[in-house]
Each structure stands twice: as C-alpha cells, then as structure tokens.
Amino acid sequence: MSSYPWYEQINGADLQQGDILHRYPIFIHLPYTIPANIDAGEMPDVSADFLEANVIVLTQSCDLAHAKVEMLIVCPVVDLGDVFPSTMHDNEKKSRFETIRQGKEPAFHMIACDGDISIATSIIDFRRIYTTPKESVINFVSQVGERVRLLPPYREHLSQAFARYFMRVGLPEDIPAFK
User: What is the enclosing helix (H) or strand (E) of 71?
Assistant: First the structure.
C-alpha cells in the first residue's frame, strides 16, 4: 500500500471537496426560446431532464463546513474508456491520455485507479460543470451509504487544476514561436 493513498471509503452526510458520487442525478434544462415580450414579465416554459453521472464535488471544503453555500459545484468523472470516441486510434488515445496525465490539457484532470475500492483511472471533465443543491447531495449521500473521497495531496492537486482551467487568460496575440 502506498504511503500516500489516493482515496478512502466513507459514510455519512459529511461532505468535502473530492467526494465522488456514483450515479448522481444531474438535472439539466433543455433548450428553450426566450419569449419576445419577456420584459413584460412573461417567463419561458422550461423543460428539464436528468442524467445519472459519476461526479466529484469541487466546492471548497471550508465553504461546505461553514455552511457558506447552498449549491455545490460538481464535474463528471469519466472512465478512460469512455473519454474519447471508439473510432479514435489507440496510439492517439494513449498520446492524449499522457498529455492529460501531465496536466497539459487544462479542461481535464486525471485521477488514479485503486483496485481495492473499484476505482478506475478516470478523467474529470471541467468543460461540463454542474451545480446542484447542497441539500440534495446530503440526502443522496445519506441514502447511498459508502462512497469514495479523494485524499490530500491529490485533492489539492485537483483543486489547483480546476482553478487553472478558470484562470486562463486568452491573449489577442501570442508571442511568436522560436524557430
């Protein structure tokens, strides 16, 4: 066993950044048209659907502990085999996985496998960010029993990767490449 394990299995309603929720229901709104007379107070009819996804909590643990948030930020946790299309060549997949592992693709973050608790090597997709009510998550974790929590320093590494994805600055012109 590693002296720095990646995960622990936990129970209960205590939430922290890095908690992985399996088959969590994410409600998504379906496309709608904004009515032309919305200024008059007319609200659009909105339909919603939901998907079940493995997600990881990205809201800061300190905000959770001090009841500073009503909504939690979560992102999908995707098994490696499901990240890229099956039509992509294996060599290309391996190359992409390696660049993600190295942190060179800011939209993704890789977490390790752990056979003892059935966690596969997975990718966290920062491009798909969801918010969900804190109370819904507490109810969910209270019902599902055991779940997995990402441990330090890997949790902090995830937090830093998430921050890097958002703090990027797009420049109108880049410095030309050296030749």
Answer: strand 71-79
Is there a contact between 21 and 57 (Cβ–Cβ < 8 Å)?
A: yes
Mean pLDDT of 33-51: 70
Query: What digits encode the pLDDT tens for the residues 144-169?
Result: 989 999 999 999 999 999 999 989 88
- Mean pLDDT computed over every residue of the chain: 90
Q: Which of 106, 172, 146 is nearest to 10 (CA)?
A: 146
Contact 109, 161 (CB under 8 A): yes
Residue 1 lies in a domain: no
Domain annotation covers residue 24: yes
Is position 175 within any domain?
A: no
| Residue 80 belongs to domain spanning | 7-167
pLDDT of residue 42: 67
- Per the structure, how many domains does the chain have? 1
